[in-house]
Amino acid sequence: MVILHRLKGAEFVLNADLIESIEANPDTVITLLNEKKYIVSEPVETVVEKVFQYKARIHSLPVANRPTKEG
User: Which UniProt keywords apply (predicted)?
Assistant: First the structure.
């Protein structure tokens, strides 16, 4: 999940796993897999960086109760 801002400044949280595309038009438009679109105040580069950071955090979390080779 990434925190973004609508053009009027309202903050919202977007599920980064649902992003299909991000484009500058000139405003940043995020299209989700379900074709829903969000226009945000952050530039494309910032959204991409937030998604990268989110993915890095997710992949670096320890996995609880991971089974071992012994059991």
Answer: Cell projection, Cilium, Flagellum
